[in-house]
Write a structure and sequence with these properties.
alpha+beta, Aminopeptidase, 2 domains, 13-stranded mixed beta sheet, 13 strands, about 35% helix
Amino acid sequence: MNPPLRIEELRHTSSRQMERLFAEERDHWLQELHWDYRPSLQLISKFIEAKTLAGHAAFSGQEAVGYGFYIVEESKGLIGGLYASPRHDAAEIGRQILDEMLANMRAAPGLRRIEAQLMPFGAPLDHAFVGQNFRLHPRQFMLLPLKEWTGESTPLPDGLRLERWDDRYFEPCARLIQAAYSGHVDSEINDQYRTEAGALRFLKNIILLPGCGQFRPEASMIVRPPSSDRLVAVALTSCVSHGVGHTTQICVLPGYQGRGLGRRLMAASVQALRSKQFHALSLTVTSANAQAVKLYEKLGFHTVKTFSAAVWQI
């Protein structure tokens, strides 16, 4: 019989205690999603050692069998990660860690919203989130072997220009994201999409920080009129492991949708990745966005993992 679970705050643990668990999580990310999670784990270890990461770890005897961490800023909380070892009762471990984190988060004064997008490597946490009054939005992690790319590099409509990303586009891109996701299901999942300021924070996170891989400007494309920095479409790409890219954002301005801009952007990103000997490209998409899912499937993407975005709001 396994020893009973013991839940401790991360500030009472050390990164050395978590090494085996981190190695196990790293292997799942690489084997199942073709994603090198080591840069993220290095940051997590650093913050654990500094005693600055809010969250909890589960122990069976002296063995770490799960952990989760979160951030609370003003009225919003974000669960940044939760991993429970499939070698144990992952569903129960995940539930106990989640319950502890949510109790602490909800005790924060003024908290009105909590978001989470967690990859289930052991057991899904959907029931645990529903039991905590979260709304779930099914999502798909899709992968394209670049040799199976079936999209055509079609010409742009007249009056538009395709270019590689430049940092001068941060603010125009934030305005594009806010406009493109107005009333969209993804703005229910990530409330940063609802304002230009929030979209700008989102962009800086995916471009400047390693959580979504190493940003690749040469494979990130924008579409704009020649005489303006106003963006009408964008596709941003990162490298998440050797030879594997990830589309971190793709959107088209309302009024320009249905003209093949998304397909054209993807074609340009794929061409750039192929020139650098990349062999695969991944992305995530909300299942309710059926039009996007259908497009990606036509281009050769297939779903390798499903997960849920979870949202709680007063």
